[in-house]
Amino acid sequence: MSKDLFGYTIPSLLRGLGVLSGYLERVQQAVDEGAFTEDELLKARLAADMLPLGRQIQIACDNAKNGPARLAGRNAPWFKDEERRLIQYRHRVEKTIAYIRSFTPRDFDGSEVRMIDQAFRGANYVMSGGDYVRDILLPNFYFHIAIAHAILRHKGLSIGKRDYLGNLPATAAEINEPTGRHRPIEFLTNGESIQWVARRGLAEDPVDSGPEFGYFQFVPQPLSITLRELICALMEELGGFSGGLLLLTDWIWDDDYDIDPTAGYRQAINESRSLGEVPGFLFTPENLQEASELLALVIERSWTGRFYLATGVTVLQLCEGYKVDVYTKDPDVERLVRYRLITLGAKFSQP
Prior knowledge:
By secondary structure, the chain is of the alpha+beta class. Helix content is 46%, strand content 13%. It has twelve helices and ten strands. It has an eight-stranded antiparallel beta sheet. A two-stranded antiparallel sheet has the order 1-2. α1 runs antiparallel to α4 (86-100). The longest helix is centred in the first third of the chain and has 31 residues, at 2-32. The radius of gyration is 22 Å and the shape is globular. The termini are far apart.
């Protein structure tokens, strides 16, 4: 039952934080377009006696990090409520996501019956972990996200129910326990990766691919499907998955609250080298699941990297800030990919 409680709690919190992150992207867009100032939106509220948008974000993050910590018998990290700029609020959400991803099902052993002292919310009684999740943690967490949604709608931002529901994340087991259920992946050093790319007649940097390569850029969120489903759909339009190489070029995680999220893939084949030593992930045609998971991870984390299809026809460049550049020398591929993206509601942008 404890592992069931983990699966019931952690994915819900991650999904909600993903929704908040999406709202902050919309706020940034509105500020960039000159419709509002950061201060105007972060201090906006629905009523005089309600908390402003910035405080709703802080409380939602506190719920998300403190709840699992209480269930696991841990002390959650303390975040100062000193955010003033939009980028600081975005960083708070990112730190919270990183901390939540550090939990595993084993951390929740006994959480269903662990008694949770309610003194933190001014109540002089305790609740079982199961009752706490059902009656307090998740309802309170989503209350603050719903109020943030309502504030932004009240200010005129174009968000709707689909934005609030968000994209469902991977199940808890998929997030934390990749070892043992994946097909083997070969790991390459940076030098080995560059050699692999050169053997297929590709340039290491897609910008240098040459005039025969068409190019366009799209934003993969928000869409009506998950990122992994998006990757699988793209592979269909790229002629099916024939394998390829994912070469990471920049990545980061918070060492205080997180672990290398790609470590499980290396552990599955007893690869002892770190991500810094082997940033290349080489996939066979049987590795579509692993490729879609890792490409989605790179996009979710706002890391950067390049995915070279084994056919040498197409390269995907994963850019910081939720953008994907598509380079292909097959006009039919470009047409099919663009059409599929349009049907999914993706936004195209100019670099």
